[in-house]
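hiii, so i know i said id send this last week but things got crazy w the move. better late than never?? heres the sequnce for the chain we talked about at the cafe, plus the structure i predicted for it. fair warning i was half asleep when i ran it
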Amino acid sequence: MFNFCPSCASKAIFFEKGKLFRCPGCGFHYYHNIAAATGCVISIPDGEVKRERHHGSQNLSSKKRSSERILFTVRGKEPAKGKLDLPGGFVDHGEGVLECLYRELKEEIGWAPIIQPGVGLSGVFKFFASFSNVYPYKNIVYNTCDIYFTVAAPGLSDQDLTLEKNEIAGVQFLKPEEIDYDKIAFESTRRAILTYFNK
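okay and structure toks below
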């Protein structure tokens, strides 16, 4: 990531322990730490989706929850452009994971669950899994901790959504048996979906 020390411009800077850039000349230290990210399984009871923007391929079957569909986004940019993902994103400075998830839903798909007074975000989003991930972006590899939540959205359809076109190319509402796991963007997302369906 660094060819020269950002502090003194020395070429002697080196990377150690898989996370620390250190310059022996001026003492500069930079820890390339784990980035936190969120993802959300939005569950829609089967029969509630009015129409779909894309159709998934039938591939794997599920042991349960065959009466629901899951909202997947289609990535509109690299990495993994054109592949399936869950709504969510990176946690900003000064932000908690639930605040991040709510913001990312509003930004990416133009929808978020209604938060009733006195309930709060923790009463709506339910944590169910967390996995490590690798996110390569513009020649920098970010190691991430991806934190996954669920939320039910009866009646939700693509007509309720306003997609962030620079980020999201489309959406798919897929039943468990329609999910092609080879088309999911990231390993952490694949693991989250498998965990959600208890596979």
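btw The chain has two domains: 1-33, 35-196. thought thatd interest u
miss u guys!!
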